[in-house]
Design a protein that fits this description.
Strand order of the largest sheet: 1-2-3-4
CATH architecture: Up-down Bundle
Low-confidence stretches: 1-44
Radius of gyration: 38 Å
CATH superfamily: Outer membrane efflux proteins (OEP)
Order of helices and strands: HHHHEEHHHHEEHH
Length: 460
């Protein structure tokens, strides 16, 4: 009989629990092997082989959204939020459990009940049993339903937060991209200025040999030439630094890839008024929608806490077998309706309700604060666009005037009516005017991208 018990009860139990412990360990081991592979998106594109094809802004944004680890982390958090929702939803469904046990007593006990008049039942010091139990939640103050809805709203909030992460990343790529274009254009202007000053240097050297210029003019030219070379080195370093930032965001080495200059922004583009943009942001901006979902989730948590004051009713049913060492066994079915009513909890449930209410008010204040912040951000973005447009117009006028001034100073110097200082100053003024125009154009493109970000438009 002992062999029967061991074979039919202990061996299955050992196999079940042994598999439960061994399977996660094996799964974890396989998971570790997969994670140890050196194929993460942050490393796969930083090889020594560099692609030299040109990159557009859309291509940079697409690569960043596909490969950036922060976006991957946000997607993983969204998956976790969905799993939490599924776990909360399972609480409203019936549950079935299987259990088995072997019991040994020092003294004989009645292990099987009598089934008729005159029967004494079965006495033994050993008992083996196996049961299947069904539990159906009937009522618990809507705690399970409110908890499920709370996690549902939290999942939607995580979806909006993931979208917001993508929009912020796209804006960061746009800002760095336009900054690099601005610096590269400035580098071109610096190179033209260096070439112009070097041409002045040769001309002055010839004039000195012909005794038509003083050696002081050559010294001043050398000083200005050294200053331009220094500015060029600084610009080169800044370009390398921003390219490194863009490479890190895209998880791809773009140090040798040229960037395609985007189409300049139209200065005559009509922009919607601030009130319209504000309404659009409240309807479409992902972080604001996430805040609203979090507010709804907190409302459900308040209802969940209130449900602790209500009674809990559940229905349980079981079916199983019991056997003793003599081989006698019986099948038994049970059904029970249980009621649990909280009478006194020392104020714990009331304290939890007050806590959730305070968190609800805090979340409402965060929503209000974000709405005020959105309006301010839209106004600031519109002011930046207006200022950048004005700067472009002024810079273009300055470039025209600087070019004409440089032409006049060159003619005056060749005729002996001007000084080399005036020529060098005019060349510096032209470089400054061109730099102002490039910076204003870059600022306008970034301001447009920022306006899309703060008004809830999806950046592409």
């Amino acid at each position: 009989m002992k062999s029967f018990i061991i074979t039919h009860f202990f061996l299955p139990v050992v196999l079940i629990f042994g598999g439960a412990f061994l399977l996660p360990a094996q799964t974890y081991a396989n998971h570790s092997k997969v994670n140890n592979k050196d194929d993460s998106p942050g490393k796969k594109n930083f090889s020594g082989q560099n692609n030299t094809d040109s990159l557009t802004l859309d291509e940079c944004i697409t690569a960043a959204l596909e490969n950036n680890p922060d976006i991957q982390a946000a997607v993983n958090e969204l998956q976790a939020a969905h799993a939490r929702y599924q776990g909360a939803r399972s609480a409203i469904l019936p549950s079935i459990h299987f259990g088995s046990a072997y019991e040994y007593y020092s003294n004989e006990q009645r292990v099987l009940q009598p089934h008729g008049t005159g029967e004494q039942g079965i006495f033994s010091n050993q008992l083996a049993r196996a049961d299947a139990v069904l539990t159906i939640p009937v009522f618990n103050g809507k705690r399970s339903i409110n908890n499920m809805h709370a996690f549902s709203h939290s999942r939607k909030a995580q979806e909006y937060q993931t979208q917001r992460h993508k929009n912020i990343l796209a804006f960061s790529v746009s800002r760095i991209f336009h900054t690099i274009i601005n610096l590269e254009n400035r580098l071109v202007s610096l190179q033209k200025s260096i070439e112009a000053i070097e041409s002045h240097h040769k001309r002055i050297s010839s004039m000195i040999e012909a005794k038509k210029a003083a050696s002081l003019d050559l010294l001043r030219t050398n000083v200005r030439l050294a200053s331009l070379h220094q500015q060029k080195l600084v610009a080169d370093n800044e370009i390398s630094a921003f390219r490194s930032q863009l490479s890190a965001i895209m998880t791809e080495n773009i140090s040798l890839r040229p960037l395609t200059i985007p189409v300049p922004a139209d200065l005559k583009t009509t922009i919607a008024p601030v009130d319209s943009l504000y309404e659009q942001a409240l309807c479409c901006r992902a972080d604001y929608l996430a805040m609203q979902e979090m507010l709804e989730a907190q409302m459900r948590r308040v209802d969940f806490a209130r449900g602790a004051l209500a009674p809990s009713i559940s229905l349980k049913g079981g079916y199983g077998i019991r056997t003793d060492v003599s081989g006698k066994n019986e099948l038994a079915a049970t059904a029970a309706l249980s009621l649990s009513l909280p009478l006194f909890e020392g104020g714990r449930n009331t304290a939890k309700i007050n806590e959730e209410k305070a968190l609800l008010e805090a979340q409402q204040n965060r929503v209000n604060s974000l709405s005020l912040q959105i309006f301010s951000e839209i106004e600031t973005a519109l002011l930046d666009i207006h200022a950048a447009k004005e700067r472009i117009s002024i810079a273009q006028t300055g470039i025209d005037a600087a070019r004409e001034g440089l032409r006049i100073e060159n003619v005056k110097y060749e005729q002996g009516k001007g000084t080399i200082s005036n020529v060098l100053d005019a060349q510096a003024e032209l470089l400054e005017a061109e730099t102002n125009q490039y910076e204003a154009s870059s600022a306008l493109m970034i301001a447009y991208a920022r306006l899309k970000l703060v008004s809830g438009e999806v950046l592409k």
